[in-house]
Design a protein that fits this description.
The chain has helices spanning about 5-15, 20-30, 35-50, 65-75, 90-100, 140-165, 175-190; strands at about 1-5, 55-60, 85-90, 100-105, 110, 130, 165-170. It is an alpha/beta fold. The protein has 2 domains: about 1-80, Rossmann fold (3-Layer(aba) Sandwich); about 90-190, P-loop containing nucleotide triphosphate hydrolases (Rossmann fold), CATH 3.40.50. The strands form 3 sheets. A 3-stranded antiparallel β-sheet has the order 5-4-6. A two-stranded parallel sheet has the order 1-2. A two-stranded parallel ribbon has the order 3-7. The radius of gyration is 17 Å and the shape is globular. Bound molecules: zinc ion. Zinc ion binds next to loops.
Length: about 190
C-alpha cells in the first residue's frame, strides 16, 4: 500500500476533523507541518499496515529532520526491512511534469497532459470525478518548491542512504523506459 503525506493531509482536511482544520491552517499559511501533527496523522496508518503485515511505500516522506527521526525510530522499533528508493529527474523535467499534472480529488490518482491521460478527458478513470490542478502546482510555485527541496530534503535523502540500502532511479524518461532497470535493482537489493 502507498502512504503519501499529501494525500493524508487532503483526506483529513476533507473530513473536517479538528486535526484537518489545524492542517488546513498550516498548509494555507505555507508553514511546515510540525512533528506532532504529522505523527497524529501517519502513525495510525503505519500501525495498521504493520498490524496487517502489509508491505508499504511511504511516498515523499520524510522531508524534515523531525519526521526523519520519527520514521526511522518507528521502523527500527517494528523491526521493518527498509529499502530507500530515490527517484530523481532534472529540475526542468520536474517543473514541466508537475505543471502539467492533474489529480482526482476523490481518489488522488494523478494524470498528466504529457503522459498518462484519462480515458475520458477531464474525468478520473476510477471514480469518474472531475480532475483538477493541485493548488501550488503552477510553474512559479513549483520552482520555489524545487529550491526548498534542494536545501532541505537533499541532506535527509543522504542520511537515509547511509542508513538503508538505496536504489537511485533516474525518472527523466517516462516510466516504461526506467521500470525494467528499477525492478532489476530491487531484485538485487533483496538478495
Ligand atoms: Zn478518482
Amino acid at each position: 500500500m502507498q502512504i503519501g503525506i499529501g494525500a493524508l493531509c487532503r483526506k483529513e482536511i476533507d473530513k473536517g476533523t479538528p486535526l484537518g482544520m489545524k492542517i488546513k491552517d498550516i498548509v494555507e499559511q505555507a508553514k511546515i507541518l510540525d512533528i506532532e501533527t504529522v505523527r497524529q496523522m501517519i502513525e495510525p496508518v503505519l500501525e495498521e499496515a504493520v498490524a496487517h503485515n502489509r508491505q508499504f511505500v511511504v511516498d515523499g516522506y520524510p522531508k524534515t529532520w523531525n519526521s526523519f527521526n520519527f520514521l526511522t525510530e518507528f521502523l527500527a522499533a517494528k523491526n521493518i526491512e527498509v529499502v530507500c528508493i530515490n527517484m530523481f529527474a532534472d529540475d526542468d523535467v520536474c517543473i514541466e511534469r508537475i505543471a502539467s499534472r492533474f489529480e482526482c480529488h476523490q481518489c488522488a490518482r494523478t494524470y498528466n497532459k504529457n503522459g498518462i491521460q484519462p480515458q475520458v478527458q477531464g474525468l478520473c478513470d476510477t471514480c469518474n470525478e472531475p480532475l483538477s490542478q493541485r493548488k501550488g502546482d503552477d510553474s512559479e510555485t513549483v520552482r520555489f518548491r524545487m529550491k526548498q527541496y534542494h536545501e532541505n530534503a537533499e541532506p535527509i535523502t543522504n542520511a537515509l542512504r547511509e542508513r538503508y540500502p538505496c536504489i537511485d532511479v533516474d525518472t527523466s524518461k517516462w516510466p516504461v523506459d526506467y521500470c525494467e532497470q528499477f525492478l532489476d535493482s530491487l531484485v538485487r537489493v533483496h538478495k
